[in-house]
Design goal:
The complex is a heterodimer of chains A (474) and B (312). By secondary structure, chain A is an alpha/beta fold. In chain A, 39% of the residues lie in helices and 16% in strands. In chain A, the strands form four sheets. A seven-stranded mixed β-sheet of chain A has the order 13-14-15-12-11-16-17, sandwiched between helices. The radius of gyration of chain A is 22 Å and the shape is globular. The N and C termini of chain A lie far apart (61 Å). In chain B, helix 4 crosses helix 13, helix 4 runs antiparallel to helix 14 and helix 7 runs parallel beside helix 9. The chains are: A alpha/beta (474), B alpha/beta (312).
Chain lengths: 474, 312
């Protein structure tokens, strides 16, 4: 066997401080709440102690953003663009450092943080920097106005990418922001705060408050916040929608998903297998638009599953900092428990569980790539979002049945269609109730392309020209 | 499946419907997969093993009109002792020459274990009559060639005359006797990845022992995605028929990095069963010196200049 020797990326490129404060009005400040620890999920090693922002700290951050809004929104778009371009360039220059920190704090393989996350983060800042002086041509009136202070709460699966999706369009449109990163992955946001200082961004334009749910709630409910943007679970999304109802705040929610990845018998099978792997095992399945329900045409189900199982045998699970790792660690003990619970439920309900032979590291949070076959629409694993490397396989016979099964879910974030027939792709795309429909690919992101969901997957769009609407008074 | 595969070649119609019924190849997806595998980081012990394995897989090749018996002898000497200063360097798999130089190569390599391969069948265009092609093959085999690298008739293939290509391969295989047959698809002229997959299956169905990307005379030659598709084909062919076929990318593989990427592709596509000179070869002429240079760098920590490696 051709054993690849370990090829670890050096962690010396990033300097992790023992403790971090909040970033308010251009300065790092202590939080008044009880601080918490953030750990490396691959080893359970404590990386740093991070401040919790109390209601009072959140208020200071919102006031700082409010104060900065006056000058920032009055600045010509071309001036704002200069700051955003500068931030984008610094992100590129420091991308190795950011990628290593992201992998340490999140558990995702360095191959993904280096080759997917960071290039996309920089691309989002570049893209929205380009819009900052062209807002009059975006289709929202000749002189669209910003909303004010944006309160943004982001998840732990793509900490820096979600930050870019939120901050770049907000700033381009002239808003100022208070952002709360997830409590398990705050470190790259705090490094981003340092980048804001390096770029001489005016104080108060970007504020970062760390903490758990209560900090997020304080931010979302703050009376002086004009716009709430949230990415995360459907459950928390519901609470947010309830709490801001009637307040006049604008809201966008990017919530869960249970995407169908539909493979027809005439698909390019080897590429479909890659697409299925990328659809569900990318980022350990911690992807809201993950292709967690494989719908395969019955005529090729056996053949495709054999290929898929063989392919899973080549996935490399282990140290996220090893450049050859394909599957890293589960982000937290809580998430691991949830994945285990749902997988056990899958077995109890009668589905067949399969994982390739793979040894899991002793320390840290790990879950092997897992496939469930013989799944019925009524099984919990076919209905609930697992948010882990667990694929449910269902079959169909006709295109109509595929559409019916794909849409039979409370979610509607994404879908994938695999077929060599162009007319079928267009027909499927018009029938599928999902915000994104990928054809012959999966989990591809681009700053120019809008992203968002139907039904319980949320409302509003991020990315592209459409993403500007959420941050403009239109 | 084996019995029905025999019927596949009963007419051009059945052959065409079989080949066109193979799963398609999505170019974007295949390119992405090959690019991803190209980012594998092969270091230290794995790199040392890969370099030695790659040396053992090299078909040291000279296919110039200006080739001379002297040049072939010099190349054969290098094939047996790639680095005269370091006896731990393994021998290469074979030397590959034109048919009229086979006798010289056989003589020079006697008892070394290094095989002699020869390109026959009106290499590199393949544009001649079947009689000439079989005669040329028989001459090369009679001169002592262990392996024959034949080119397919791309004109017939692109015109959809799969039967003609099939029958030619069968005839050449018969003319080979005990010699191994490598079928060159010249993928740069086949243009689509779907064609690469079809030509691979066609060559395997007709009895080819190896499928080979290119003559080295047409660009693009051995790209990563094309090699990926051919590796998928041999893997699927083994699963379907129980018969194992080798793969040989040739042309454009110049650096150790290129060679290591190929080995990663083999490992993660067809599997470790193909990681041997019996089942995977690298058709190359300038690759060997880079492998030797990297090998020495790993042993000593320093790069030697190009003058420290022989030119033959």
């Amino acid at each position: 066997m051709f054993e690849y020797a370990p090829a670890p990326e050096s962690r010396d490129v990033v300097d992790i401080q023992p403790s971090y404060g909040l970033f308010i009005d251009g300065e790092f400040a202590d939080g008044t709440g009880k601080s918490f620890k953030t750990i490396n999920p691959a080893s359970e090693e404590v990386l740093a102690e991070v401040a919790t922002a109390s209601e009072e700290d959140v208020d200071r951050a919102v006031q700082a953003a409010r104060k900065a809004f006056g000058t920032w929104s009055a600045m010509p778009g071309s001036e704002r663009a200069k700051y955003l371009f500068r931030i984008a360039r610094i992100i590129q220059e420091r991308s190795r450092e950011l990628a290593v920190l992201e992998s340490l704090d999140n558990g995702k393989p360095i191959r993904e943080s280096r080759d997917v996350d960071l290039p996309l983060v920089a691309a989002h800042f570049f893209y929205y920097a380009g819009w900052a002086d062209k807002l009059g041509y975006a289709g929202y009136g000749a002189d669209p106005r910003p909303l004010g202070v944006a309160g943004q709460v982001i998840p732990w699966n793509f900490p820096l990418l979600m930050l870019a999706w939120k901050i770049a369009p907000a700033l381009a449109c002239g808003n100022t922001v208070v952002l709360k990163p997830a409590e398990t992955t705050p470190l790259t946001a705090l490094l981003f705060a340092e980048i804001c200082r390096q770029a001489d961004l005016p104080p108060g334009v970007v504020n970062i408050v760390t903490g758990a749910g209560e900090t997020g709630a304080a931010l979302v409910n703050h009376p002086d916040v004009n716009k709430v943007a949230f990415t995360g679970s459907t459950e928390v999304g519901r609470q947010i929608a309830r709490s801001v109802a009637g307040s006049g705040k604008k809201v966008t929610l990017e919530l869960g998903g249970k995407a169908a990845n539909i493979v027809f018998e005439d698909a390019a099978l080897d590429q479909a297998v890659e697409g299925i792997v990328n659809g569900i095992f990318f980022n350990q399945g911690h992807v809201c638009c993950a292709g967690s329900r494989l719908l395969v045409q019955e005529s090729i189900a056996t053949e495709l599953l054999d290929s898929l199982k063989r392919r899973l045998g080549t996935l490399r699970l282990g140290d996220p900092l090893d450049k050859n790792t394909d599957i890293g660690a589960i982000n937290s003990a809580a998430q691991l428990a949830k994945i285990r619970e749902l997988s056990d439920a899958g077995e109890l309900e009668g589905a067949d569980r399969w994982s390739p032979a793979c040894s899991l590291p002793d320390k840290g949070f790990w879950f092997p790539p897992t496939i469930f076959t013989g799944v019925a629409q009524s099984h919990r694993i076919a209905r609930e979002e697992v948010f882990g490397p667990v694929l449910s396989v269902l079959t169909f016979r006709t295109p109509d049945e595929a559409v019916e099964k794909a849409n039979n879910t409370p979610f509607g974030l994404s879908a994938g269609v695999w077929t060599e027939k162009g007319s079928r792709i267009l027909w499927m795309a018009s029938k599928l109730r999902a915000g994104v429909v990928w054809s012959n690919t999966f989990n591809r992101f681009d700053p120019t392309s809008p992203f968002g969901g139907y039904k319980e997957s949320g409302y509003g769009r991020e990315g592209g020209r459409h993403g500007l609407e959420a941050y403009l008074d239109v | 499946m084996t019995t029905s595969l025999a019927d596949v070649a009963s007419s051009n119609v059945t052959l065409r419907s079989f080949l066109q019924g193979l799963p398609g190849v999505d170019r974007v997806g295949a390119d992405q997969r090959a690019a991803m595998l190209g980012t594998r980081s092969i270091k230290t012990t794995a790199k040392a093993e890969a370099i030695d394995l790659a040396i053992r897989m090299v078909d040291l090749t000279t296919l110039e009109g200006a080739d001379t018996p002297g040049k072939v002898r010099a190349m054969c000497a290098k094939a047996v002792h790639p680095d005269p200063g370091d006896p731990s360097v393994p021998k290469v798999a074979a030397v590959c020459v034109y048919p009229d130089l086979v006798a010289q190569a056989v003589d020079a390599l006697k008892g070394s274990g290094v095989k002699v391969a020869s390109v026959a069948t009106s290499f590199p265009s393949g544009r001649s009559s079947l009689d000439i092609k079989t005669t040329e093959t028989a001459l090369a085999v009679a001169a002592g060639a262990d392996e024959i690298d034949m080119v397919i008739d791309r004109g017939a293939f692109l015109a959809g005359d799969y039967m003609k290509v099939f029958e030619e391969i069968v005839a050449i295989k018969a003319a080979c006797g005990d010699a191994h047959l490598k079928v060159i698809l010249e993928t740069g002229e086949l243009s689509t990845y779907d064609n690469v997959r079809r030509a691979s299956w066609l060559a395997m169905l007709a009895g080819g022992d190896f499928i080979k990307t290119s003559t080295g005379k047409v660009q693009p030659a051995a790209t990563l995605p094309v090699t990926l598709i051919m590796l998928e084909a041999v893997r699927d062919f083994l699963a379907t028929t129980g018969r194992k076929v080798g793969v040989k990318p040739a042309g454009g593989i110049r650096t150790t990095k290129d060679a290591v990427k190929m080995l990663v592709l083999v490992n993660e596509t067809a599997g470790e069963g193909w990681l041997s000179p019996d089942w995977f070869r690298l058709g190359a002429s300038s690759l060997l010196n880079d492998l030797l240079m990297q090998r020495q760098k790993m042993a000593t920590g320093r790069y030697a200049g190009p003058d420290y490696f022989t030119l033959d």
